[in-house]
Design goal:
globular, mainly alpha, two-stranded antiparallel sheet, 320 residues, disordered C terminus, 57% helix
């Protein structure tokens, strides 16, 4: 009898939302920072962009100093197209190139720029096989087994998403264990110093409330050890059932939005929220945003299960 093997189709609106968040994070950095801020001298390091080795392939190394702003806006156009969701297979490589150029070229990169570059590079493998006009469209259900060409792209896309999941799991594990040797994190007082730091601490309008919390032992311990527990749980998410991952998703998003509000790291927050979507949602997850936006949703005899990814036979064989 014939036996078919199935794999979730990776071309769904779930991964499309992650693409949009990654593009918006980099877009915000370029739109709200001028060339004088992004490209300048850094003490003991040198002037950015540092066009040496592989970094010389970045977009800002291709133009002279007086054309940095023009290149910055050209990159913004690429990011806007990627964020819109138009033609993922055509915009994925330019998006990854811009992410690389920003991470290697600006004088003020952070961890969000690095994870954006890594995730956009992995997403290229998914997007190159994406047949849709917009990444907001639901994945089209396959009519029978996929062709060998489509099967290869589907397997490559799923493999890239799995690598992205492992990357996010390792990232959260490293973030947690790297803090433990420091006495301030071990004794629960670290957030007291972060909240009251004048360079990276809370904004003035939020500081009175947060200072009231961190001035109490229970409050500062909860704010210090709570993120460690959440990061450890996110690191172990791949070992959990999907129901537990759904519960971790809003907690992780809220955690990164709090960091963005307190420390102003919005591009970092958007990159991490994109990573959370890739880590915690099912492979091939398709929320079907177009149906959510309809005023009068159409009724069907058998409503689809939103959490179930669309699967397609990718290989067929015979077994006696």
């Amino acid at each position: 009898m014939k036996r078919s093997r199935t794999v979730p189709l990776p071309w769904a609106t779930g991964y499309g939302l992650a693409r949009t968040l990654l593009a918006l994070g980099t877009l915000g950095t370029l739109v709200f920072s001028d060339a004088a801020t992004l490209f300048r001298e850094v003490a003991t390091v040198g002037r950015y962009p540092m066009c040496q080795g592989v970094n010389s392939a970045g977009a800002f190394c291709l133009v002279s100093d007086d054309h940095y702003d023009a290149m910055r806006w050209a990159c913004c156009l690429v990011l806007a197209l990627a964020a819109s969701g138009w033609r993922p297979r055509f915009t994925a490589i330019p998006h990854a190139y811009v992410a690389f150029s920003v991470f290697t070229g600006i004088a003020i990169p952070d961890g969000g720029d690095q994870i954006t570059w890594i995730l956009t590079l992995l997403i290229v493998t998914v997007a190159l096989g994406d047949p849709r006009r917009w990444h907001w469209q639901p994945a089209p259900p396959p009519d029978g087994p996929l062709s060998k060409h489509r099967s290869r792209w589907a397997l490559l896309g799923v493999s890239a998403l799995i690598v992205a999941r492992i990357q996010m799991s390792v990232l959260y594990f490293q973030s947690c264990v790297a803090k433990l040797p420091h006495a301030e994190w071990a004794d629960g007082s670290a957030l007291y110093y972060w909240i009251n730091n004048y360079d990276f601490g809370a904004p003035y309008w939020l500081r009175p409330m947060l200072e009231y919390v961190v001035d109490h032992p229970v409050g500062v311990a909860a704010m210090t050890w709570g993120p460690l527990a959440l990061e450890l749980a996110l690191a172990a998410a791949l070992l959990m059932p999907q129901k537990a991952r759904w519960m971790l998703l809003p907690a992780g998003v809220f955690f990164h939005l709090c960091i963005a509000t307190v420390m102003g790291l919005w591009s970092f927050a958007l990159a991490m929220c994109a990573g959370l979507l890739m880590l915690l949602t099912p492979l091939g997850h398709d929320p079907d945003f177009t149906r959510m936006l309809r005023r009068t949703p159409q009724l069907s005899a058998v409503p689809p299960k939103k959490d179930d990814p669309i699967e397609a036979p990718v290989m067929a064989g015979t077994q006696p």
